[in-house]
Amino acid sequence: MIEFYELNTINDELLEFAVIYSMYKNEWVFVKHKDRTTWEMPGGHREFGENINTTATRELFEETGSK
Length: 67
Description:
67 residues; alpha+beta; two-stranded antiparallel ribbon
């Protein structure tokens, strides 16, 4: 199940994944999944010791090359 939370309403340590809803030049950013034929929002697992904002920044860069 996916749940959505407002910023700063849940303990950061409880978050395991980051999904990044982002726009560039007024268009949504999607990435093609390497193991499936689907287009998805960038995101991924949190690494040990990482805060969720760092996870989101890293995943966005890894999957799109954008900062």
